[in-house]
Every structure is written in C-alpha cells, then in structure tokens.
C-alpha cells in the first residue's frame, strides 16, 4: 500500500507522519526548536537551521523504517511568514514570522492611509495587521535596504521546503490570501499595482491550490531527505488550514479550534464575508472561503509558567490547576503576552493578572491562564457570529487537547460542546491528506473521504454549573482590557524605549 509523508513546520516544533491512503497512521516523528526574539516585537526563525534541518531529520527518520514506497509528500508550516532569498534562493536574513511579529506597525499605518482601510478590506478580505505579509515586505524595504537590494523572491515555511525539494517557486492561494494587500481573494490573482507599490521588482510565486502536485523530489535532495527522487510533492499550505482539512472542517459552520503555542480558529463560510476584526481568507480548496482568528499567545503562556516554576513537565501544574475552582479563586488574566491579534489587533496589548492575593498559588495562576485563553476563544467566536459566521460545529485539535482540563474549560466558557477527532497529531496529518488528494488516492477535499480519514472519537460537553460561573467572569474579562489599555500601552512604549 502506498504511503503519504506529511511534515509540518511549527512555531516550537516540527512534526511528521507516514500515513496509508486509508488514513491509517504508520509512524510519527517530532523535532523541538525555539524561536528567536532579538528585539521586542520581533519573532524569527533561521530557515536552514530550523525549517530545513527539521524537515530532513523527520523525513529520514520516517522513511528509513518505511516498508512501502512513499507515494507523495505534503508540507505545511507556520504562516504567513516572510523569508527573503536572493537569486540563488539563499536566505538573506532570518524569517520574519506571522502575526506574533509586530515590527511593521509603521508600515501598516502608512499603507492603510495610502490605500484606504475600507478599500483594502473590500478588495482583500482583511484590514492590514501584523499578520499580513505586505507590511512586512514594506518594513524590509524601508529598514534593511541592503537585504532588500539582494532580495529576488520571498518564501514561507512550506514553500521554502517545496522549493528545495522540487525547484518550484509556488505559493498556494490560501497563503497568498494572507499576503494582504497583494492578493485578490475573489479573482484569485496578485494585485499587480499594489505589489509593485510595496515590493517593486520582486518575483512573485506561481499560484496553485494546496493539493496541486507542483513538482517531484530532485535527485540532489533525495539522499538528504530519504525520499526517493521523482516522488510527487504538493504545494501545501499554512499549518492551521492543513490541520482543519485533516479533521474534516470543510462545511459552512464548521470551526476548528487549534490548541497550540498560539490559539487559532478557522471557520468555513457559506460565502465570502468581510470583518475588520477578523481575517477573511480563501479556503483550502477551490470555491471555499473562511474566517480566521488567532490569539498571539495561548500555550506559550503555560510554557512560560512551567519555566518560571522550574517544573520539567506540565503534569504537576495541571494537577494543581484541577484543584482550583472555576474562576481560579478570583483571578483574572488577560492573555496578551505578545500583543493580541484578533479581534483587538493591538500589538501593544500586554498580559494582565488581576485579583492576586497571598492566598493564591501556582495552580490558581495556571488555571487562570487556561481560562484566559478560553475567554479569548469566546471573544473571537462572538466576532465571527457578528460578521455572519454560524459556528454550528466545533472541532478541537492540537497538542493542548491532551489531558482534558484545557478543553473542558473552553467548553464550559463557551457553553458549547467540542468534538475531538481520533487523531490529534496536527497539521502533518492534513499534509498527508492533501498529498493523497493530489495523486488521486482520495477523491476530493470536500467529500466524505476526508472525514473518514479522521473520525470524531470524543465530545467534550459543557457543565451547566461551571457555565454559569464563567458567564460572570467573562463579563469581567471583557471589561478588563479597555479599563487597563492606557496603562499597558504606556508600559509597552517603555519596553520599546528600554529595549526590554
């Protein structure tokens, strides 16, 4: 039976999977890595040392034990990112990561004033935020002129891998729709006059769909990766959309909640919609459209707490948090430790922990962090509903779904059930599925075949008593940000001046 190889390059780790064409997982592999934060608001990856090194290590580990041939390869990654490369595809600087990197605030303001906020929203589906690639390119041109002078192309995590594997310079339509204001999501093309304004002379990638076969593994990299030369490679996409595909989030009203270093939400829409508080994007397959939302930090906060406490694992903290009641003994956290993306779009937002007393312990604080993420999810879902979303079905995915406490808190805060699929491996499973679709092993990205790959195994139901408690705390959560905004903005300015 043919195997599909899927590899996802994540924020804090990369994961790979070998899967049979019927969705049976054969083997998995993981590599941990870290981001670089050289200045406040900057978040970067060294593409060769992280992206390519992880991919080659994972692919060799998986393929060396494969008893069947690898029929196709799919890759996804964090995004949208910006990796400038020269005419020989050599990276010119570390990659600038997605919306957690907030360096391009000046360029966002300048482009918004120049092109018009409403014009950008209507034409591109989103307003300009730290998530968009366009302002990052403008920042590079304005602030690193020597790098810009050598830049010929731009890559993202998955397209960097695809380029090295196949030599093809491509970008999937979904990822292009997050290159605001450079792409038209209705006409599915680059907006030439705006790309020339932002990045004159830049060679733009050919646009393809994530499951399109865009080339074959070249002989020169076959030995490095363990993948036989001639193996088909699909275009791939940004990790959240690969993961949504892996769990059958394909029908209008389906919502994926991705529990990871950041919390990300994708809702499938019945038609293109616009909201200044969300990202309107092209979907994974032709004819589909989505709303996307993302919190700048979620699992990153629990990791921060783990490191502060010196615990080697999360288990003691989770156990102590389970002993804390809903509301964490009167603690309330704002989870904006790296600014906030949707629906605030405020890079100067900061974390707040309100209500501390000498009575509180680390279990209370850890639970307050989980509750803060849940409040943020609810805030985003309400923004989606206000803009025409339906959120009929919630599917939870990602490493944060393990253990049960976090997902239960989210269901209690939302007052809604969440479905957990059989496999929560992550986007790499979606990469393998996209590869299967690309070679015709799965008929269609919108068919029942997709859901059959990864059926629902568990449903998390909300507890009515806890729902009532969280209703009160959620109202306070929504009030806490506007009440503290001026103070934290002043602190953010002080952090930038002090370089801390």
Give me the CATH architecture of the domain at 3-241, please.
2-Layer Sandwich
Query: Helix share of residues?
Result: 25-40%
Average pLDDT, rounded to a whole number, is: 95
Strand order of the largest sheet: 3-2-1-5-15
Radius of gyration: 22 Å
Instruction: Find the CATH topology of the domain at 3-241.
Output: Nucleotidyltransferase, domain 5
**Assembly annotation:** single chain
CATH homologous superfamily label of the domain at 3-241: ATPase, nucleotide binding domain
What is the global morphology? Answer: globular
Largest sheet: 5 strands, mixed
The span between the termini is 54 Å
Number of helices: 17
Which CATH first-tier class of the domain at 3-241 would you pick? Alpha Beta
- Number of β-strand runs: 24
Structural class: alpha+beta
Task: Summarize the structure in words.
With about 500 residues, this protein is of the alpha+beta class. It has a domain at about 5-240: Nucleotidyltransferase, domain 5 (2-Layer Sandwich). It has 17 helices and 24 strands. A five-stranded mixed sheet has the order 3-2-1-5-15, sandwiched between helices. It has a five-stranded mixed sheet with strand order 18-19-17-16-22. Strands 4-7 form a two-stranded antiparallel ribbon. A hairpin with a 6-residue loop joins strand 18 and strand 19. The radius of gyration is 22 Å and the shape is globular. The relative contact order is 0.13. The model has no long low-confidence stretch (mean pLDDT about 95).
């Amino acid at each position: 039976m043919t195997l599909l190889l899927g590899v996802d390059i994540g924020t804090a780790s990369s994961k790979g999977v070998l899967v049979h064409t019927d969705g049976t997982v054969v083997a998995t592999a993981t590599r941990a890595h870290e981001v670089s934060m050289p200045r406040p608001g900057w978040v970067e990856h060294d593409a060769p040392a992280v992206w390519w090194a992880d991919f080659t290590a994972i692919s060799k580990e998986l393929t060396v034990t494969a008893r069947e041939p690898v029929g196709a390869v799919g890759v996804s990654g964090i995004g949208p990112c910006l990796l400038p490369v020269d005419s020989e595809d050599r990276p010119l600087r570390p990659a600038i990561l997605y919306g957690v990197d907030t360096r391009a605030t000046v360029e966002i303001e300048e482009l918004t004033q120049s092109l018009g906020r409403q014009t950008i929203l209507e034409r591109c589906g989103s307003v300009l935020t730290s998530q968009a690639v366009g302002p990052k390119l403008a920042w590079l041109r304005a602030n690193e002129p020597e790098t810009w002078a050598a830049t010929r192309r731009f890559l993202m995590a998955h397209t960097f891998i695809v380029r090295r594997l196949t030599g093809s310079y491509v970008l999937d339509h979904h990822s292009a729709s997050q290159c605001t204001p450079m792409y038209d999501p209705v006409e599915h093309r680059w907006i030439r006059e705006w790309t020339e304004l932002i990045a004159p002379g830049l060679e733009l990638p050919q646009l393809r769909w994530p499951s399109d076969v865009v080339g074959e593994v070249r002989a020169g990299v076959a030995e490095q990766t363990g993948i036989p030369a001639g193996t088909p490679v699909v275009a791939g996409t940004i990790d959240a959309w690969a993961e949504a595909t892996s769990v059958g989030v394909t029908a209008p009203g389906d919502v994926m909640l991705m529990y990871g270093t950041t919390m990300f939400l994708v809702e499938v829409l019945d038609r293109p919609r616009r909201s200044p508080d969300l990202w309107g994007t092209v979907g994974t397959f032709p004819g589909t459209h989505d709303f996307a939302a993302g919190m700048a930090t979620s699992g990153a906060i629990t990791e921060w707490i783990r490191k502060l406490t010196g615990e080697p694992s999360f288990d003691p903290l989770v156990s102590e948090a389970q002993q804390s009641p809903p509301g964490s003994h009167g603690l309330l956290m704002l989870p904006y430790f790296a600014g906030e993306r949707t629906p605030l779009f405020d890079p100067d937002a900061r974390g707040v922990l309100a209500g501390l007393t000498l009575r509180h312990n680390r279990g209370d604080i850890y639970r307050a962090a989980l509750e803060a993420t849940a409040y943020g999810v609810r805030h985003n879902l309400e923004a989606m509903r206000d803009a025409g979303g339906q959120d009929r079905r919630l599917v939870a995915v990602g490493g944060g779904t393990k253990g049960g406490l976090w997902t239960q808190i989210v269901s209690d805060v939302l007052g809604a059930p969440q479905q957990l699929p059989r496999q929560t491996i992550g986007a790499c499973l979606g990469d393998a599925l996209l590869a299967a679709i690309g070679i015709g092993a799965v008929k269609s990205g919108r068919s029942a075949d997709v859901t059959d790959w990864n059926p629902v195994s568990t449903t998390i139901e909300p507890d009515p008593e806890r729902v009532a408690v969280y209703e009160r705390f959620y109202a306070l959560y929504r009030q806490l940000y506007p009440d503290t905004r001026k103070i934290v903005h002043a602190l953010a300015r002080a952090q930038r001046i002090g370089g801390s």
